[in-house]
Amino acid sequence: MAQKVVLITGCSSGIGLTTAVTLARDPQHRFKVIATMRNLNKRDKLEETAGDTLNRTLEIKQLDVCDEKSIQECIDSIPDRHIDILVNNAGVGMIGPIECQTIEEMKVVFETNFFGVVRMIKEVYPDMKKRKCGHIVVISSVMGLQGIMFNDVYTASKFAVEGFCESLIIQALKFNVYISLIEPGPVVTEFEMKAYEEAARGDYSGTDPVTAEMFTNMYLNNSKAIFNSLGQKPDDIAEVSKGHLLKVILAEVPPFRHQTNPIYTPLTALKHADPTGDLATDVFYKMVFRYDRLMHASLSCIKLMRGLCVMCPDERSF
Q1: Of 138, 223, 234, 290, which has the fewest beta carbons less than 10 angstroms from its beta carbon?
Q2: Residue 49 annotated as part of some ligand binding site
Q3: 139 burial class (0-12, 13-18, 19+ CB within 10 angstroms)?
Q4: What are the residues whose beta carbons fall under 8 Å from the beta carbon of 94, sequence distance 6 or more?
Q5: Is position 158 annotated in a ligand binding site?
Q6: pLDDT tens per residue across span 193-245
Q7: Any catalytic annotation for residue 204?
Q8: Is 8 annotated as a binding residue?
Q9: 258-313 pLDDT, tens digit each
């Protein structure tokens, strides 16, 4: 069986790096990985992690999802422009009160998270349709299904991605092209941790004192607790043993949506249980403003249970 060519964006760290190396190290050598990143000066960590797969089953190329010329040059450098699987992973985050964020900063988020995905799909989708074969994977988020306080712009960019793919999948299937949205909850990466550290030192004089206090003391503290208790690692997303990204890629009929953290499934389902939106709004409001102590206690219990599962790997995972 010929190797499948997999192009992955945003491979300098996190989920992109881990996915690229996981596929490149496949014992059955089923994949030829094109690991791309905007800035090749950040390739050292990927090269070190890739080890002996480098320039064998893994090749590193420059690609900026915000630059159409960069995308075209990268795709044109691949023999016959043949890509079996596209993994759209490149993304940026933004948190904080909207009064403290400029429209230009918001546009940067959409340029990468939404238009970056659209640019990549526009470039590879026509070739996949001609071959009547292909798989487009998009690293989305549970925040593409449910809005989270102080993630307004990031959430909007992921909602846009979800709506775009939900529309495109219908015609894509006619050409035997599959689309899969991978929807993680919090993922612990150096990028995420740095973003939250910088947010804690931010200037929020542009908003009112109540909102600034709400963000710096309530939101950031709650986020830290959530990441510590519910956060997954990039390995959890990429490895087949966890049943996530690699399993989706290997599926004979790939799913359109796949959530990597089952704890979030009931929360994302609330809006479908009540079309008015009142149920979801009420639940999240009370979690944040009324039952925050109970939420923290629950997170501590979850963290303890997950720790016990790690110590007893033969038991059913939480």
Answers
A1: 290
A2: no
A3: buried
A4: 101, 105, 106, 109, 151, 153, 154
A5: yes
A6: 777 888 888 899 999 999 999 999 888 888 877 776 677 788 788 765 555 88
A7: no
A8: no
A9: 998 887 788 788 888 888 989 888 887 887 887 666 555 554 454 444 454 444 54
